[in-house]
Amino acid sequence: MSRIGFIGLGIMGGPMAANLVAAGHEVTGYNRSRAKVDRLVQQGGTAAATVAEAVRGADVVVTMLPDSPDVEAVVTAEDGVLAHLPAGTLLIDFSTIRPDVARQVAEAAADKGVRMLDAPVSGGEPKAVDGTLSIMAGGSEDTFAAAREVLDVVGSTIVHVGPAGAGQTVKAANQLMVAGNIGLLAEALVFLESYGVDTKAGLEVLGGGLAGSAVLDAKGSKMRDREFGPGFRLELHHKDMGIVQAAAREAGLTIPLGSLVSQLVAAANAQGDGALDHSGLLRQINNLNGRD
Amino acid sequence: MSRIGFIGLGIMGGPMAANLVAAGHEVTGYNRSRAKVDRLVQQGGTAAATVAEAVRGADVVVTMLPDSPDVEAVVTAEDGVLAHLPAGTLLIDFSTIRPDVARQVAEAAADKGVRMLDAPVSGGEPKAVDGTLSIMAGGSEDTFAAAREVLDVVGSTIVHVGPAGAGQTVKAANQLMVAGNIGLLAEALVFLESYGVDTKAGLEVLGGGLAGSAVLDAKGSKMRDREFGPGFRLELHHKDMGIVQAAAREAGLTIPLGSLVSQLVAAANAQGDGALDHSGLLRQINNLNGRD
Amino acid sequence: MSRIGFIGLGIMGGPMAANLVAAGHEVTGYNRSRAKVDRLVQQGGTAAATVAEAVRGADVVVTMLPDSPDVEAVVTAEDGVLAHLPAGTLLIDFSTIRPDVARQVAEAAADKGVRMLDAPVSGGEPKAVDGTLSIMAGGSEDTFAAAREVLDVVGSTIVHVGPAGAGQTVKAANQLMVAGNIGLLAEALVFLESYGVDTKAGLEVLGGGLAGSAVLDAKGSKMRDREFGPGFRLELHHKDMGIVQAAAREAGLTIPLGSLVSQLVAAANAQGDGALDHSGLLRQINNLNGRD
Amino acid sequence: MSRIGFIGLGIMGGPMAANLVAAGHEVTGYNRSRAKVDRLVQQGGTAAATVAEAVRGADVVVTMLPDSPDVEAVVTAEDGVLAHLPAGTLLIDFSTIRPDVARQVAEAAADKGVRMLDAPVSGGEPKAVDGTLSIMAGGSEDTFAAAREVLDVVGSTIVHVGPAGAGQTVKAANQLMVAGNIGLLAEALVFLESYGVDTKAGLEVLGGGLAGSAVLDAKGSKMRDREFGPGFRLELHHKDMGIVQAAAREAGLTIPLGSLVSQLVAAANAQGDGALDHSGLLRQINNLNGRD
């Protein structure tokens, strides 16, 4: 069992930390909002009042934060994680951030002798609670091996996809494909509806062939029914498409479809739909077509 | 058992007609190239030298032709199918054509008392040979019911999706989604490769989550290996995207992603890749990025 | 002076025919709506009750019709213009239609010994009234020379741009660039406004440099003021973008920006803005951004 | 006459500094490459070995640097411009950078009592040499007025477009429109060429109507002749489109055409055309179409 410092106890980080406690680890948690730390204490964890306190004496430090600047601030800042970690410690970042920032943070960690893994997850709150997240990990083989005892608690599909930053790259590719698939499904739906097709039967036959996808399975009938209740919020997908575009630019890449779907997601956000599930992108396609 | 007039014995129509013969139907076939008619005769069918000869005395007429103008020429032209069919006959068009043309042809058929079904298929040559095509049928309930004895021989997933033209609409939506999914996967692959990610592991984890799709399952590893051997040719998908765009314009619809992917498919075609499998769209995305 | 049969006396054709009368030509006009023919008679022309009547005895036949199918119907149909014209007559089509249709009609004319010029115009109703249209003419040098006496009456910038169809090709390119320039200006305006820039000063400096354009000069300040009173209607530009896309597909071309701006124009139309001036495309860009 | 500290003596900054010397100002210049400082000395300026030395005792400090991080490094860094300037000094930044960075730097300057103007220019090296640049200035009225004695020396069209950052916003809009206009012209050219139109005559008539633009006037015939000799390099326009996209995201804006043209510029860059004039974007459109 390990002593784990856990920073970032939000919607995702909270249940992940709880699962680590339940698995027998000694977890000390820090979060800007004290209420979330209290909940961890009730679940058997220990409270930390500062980042420094959370990471003191830890074998493993885990971060689960909203965006690239947050990870930079918490990990590499003057009084941040790296300032307090001895060489040899393991640092796992579950946040979804820019691949180039992930690489820079990993280099800063390496300079201190700290082994780092970027390990963004997919699956959302339900899978965080169940400990069945998908995890895309970037870092050395050794670091990945060392992290397995933590990864195995929070995830079920756990894949090592390459060196530092590779986890974030795969996560970015994931978000690009998911947004694109939602957009294509939205266009197909508008197309079918405008021609008066039976969309229930239509989606059934589409889903059974080469047009089939996890997005169609998970979102198709909800999109037909205009049910966009919270799941993965459009505003978060908008943030993630920003990562995709920044990473493409960083690598000198052209991704025309990814770029266009980013624009559509940005439009949905600008029109006030940021709090909907990302399948709510259908509303944007409908709007373009003067429909509901 | 029925007497079937079958017009269009190409890569798809040939095996479909053979399966109808094998199922015990009396099939009279016509094709512009005589060699294909001869093959049907060897398989137990009867040769026709003209469209008129093929449809004379038939209970059911089947067409499987390349594009909208071909269907118009064969069905509604002066000496075409409708000129020779008595009221009450059943006409099944398996071709992939424009929804509005399908509706017009169905109306011309109705004027003659001929019941028509638009029934485009997906699955390609292998499933045509196996009799396991997916079929999206448009027409009245009665016509669909009457056509089942033929449809059940050539297909396994057979869905009635709405009135005349609806089959073509769903097929167009299918082609839109498939092209889009290939394009997105191509962009994701270029993205992963440019960042030095292990793409085998990367595609595995992408395929297991919300980014998963039939395209990724069927084409992912071939695209990694740059294997674009014949399957569904890009030049046919280019033709189909023309149908998608024409149908969108006909309905006054905006489909931004579909429109952009149409442009990418057109570019691939213009660059000489028309004979590759449609997954060869990856070459176009690579080319945009100065890569192979 | 010539005897001219003029078919299509609408918003553009009406004043063009009147100018030809005023220039001393003997003009016999036909239009589906009789009121427009009566107006020509008041202006000194002669009424025709049918196409046949209009073209009988004419040295030159002029057509000014809404779209490709209209030109096909009037010129090549069974009782159309070509059925009544002797060899050697000159046929000038001022309509904006598809380049490939223009070529086909020119070939049908050539088969009858009729010399044809495709001569689409730009400049709108005011320049039609003033006889100062821009004319892009396609056809042989001889035909162009023969047509000058007519062209000089209705236009001021008159350029021979190539063989049959070339006039329509240039007109299509014109509509592509104009729609694109309006779209870009709309995006620039939204950008400036959202940053609180003084847009009057901003457009002034933009107009004075490499970003300057006829669109900015003619439409910039009206777009700032949200004045979209009738000029060239969006729904006509939507029709023209259909020609652009059909012509690109016919030639196997990829035009990504043209394709995207077509989608934006289609969206504006779908949202009910078809009757606005095409600068009203700004409303579509604003809408995408949740703005007015 | 003023004492001016001038930082950044490159292709643009060099002649601008020389013009300030020629106008009677006392100019102390700094550049990372010493050779460029020496040239200024030959032209009558004074050499500085560090930023601190350049700005010491200056009434006005001028910066002309490649990109946002350069301006941040030179102006706000620990030993940067602001560390050495007394309150009341005037700071003019002629660089093209992100509007939000311009605003942040202006705020940092204001904290020190330094008045700042963002004043990006357009017109390229020839107009820098002639002192006839277009200048888009953002800052307070007072600061703009105080800067006029410098601005009037280097530019001829000088417009105050709003508060801090507004100059950069207008410059970004300029670059968006210019890239878009080049892309549209490229698509129009490919379209005309593929149809065998006389492009000289075609561009003439396009340029005379609503499709006319400064880009067509300046680049049209060169693009016809495939002359892409150095002017404004594609790689710089690629950098500027990065600013456009970052600024759009910062403001929560959707700019679909700007986003697509950014992708085309990025592709041209990825394909190795970065050193060509930006009109070389034609090569990218040709490439998409399998043409030269």
Tell me what you see in this structure.
- By secondary structure, chain A is of the alpha/beta class.
- Chain A is 55% helix and 14% strand.
- Chain A contains 14 helices and 9 strands.
- Chain A has helices at residues 13-22, 34-42, 51-55, 68-76, 81-84, 99-111, 124-130, 141-154, 166-194, 199-207, 214-224, 234-250, 256-270, 281-288, and strands at 3-7, 26-30, 46-47, 60-63, 90-93, 115-118, 121-122, 133-138, 155-162.
- In chain A, the strands form 2 sheets. Chain A has a 6-stranded parallel beta sheet, with helices on both faces.
- In chain A, β2, α2 and β3 (46-47) form a beta-alpha-beta unit.
- In chain A, α9 packs across α13 (256-270), α12 runs antiparallel to α13 and α13 (256-270) crosses α14 (281-288).
- Chain A is elongated and about 65 Å long.
- The termini of chain A are far apart.
- The model of chain A has no long low-confidence stretch (mean pLDDT 96).
- Chains A and B meet through β8, β9, α9, α10 and α11 of A and β8, β9, α9, α10 and α11 of B.
Topology, pairings included?
Four copies of one chain form a homotetramer.
Chain A: E1 3-7, H1 13-22, E2 26-30, H2 34-42, E3 46-47, H3 51-55, E4 60-63, H4 68-76, H5 81-84, E5 90-93, H6 99-111, E6 115-118, E7 121-122, H7 124-130, E8 133-138, H8 141-154, E9 155-162, H9 166-194, H10 199-207, H11 214-224, H12 234-250, H13 256-270, H14 281-288
Parallel strand pairs in A: 1-2, 1-4, 2-3, 4-5, 5-6, 8-9
Antiparallel strand pairs in A: 7-8
Helix pairs in contact in A: 1-7, 4-6, 9-11, 9-12, 9-13, 9-14, 10-11, 12-13, 13-14
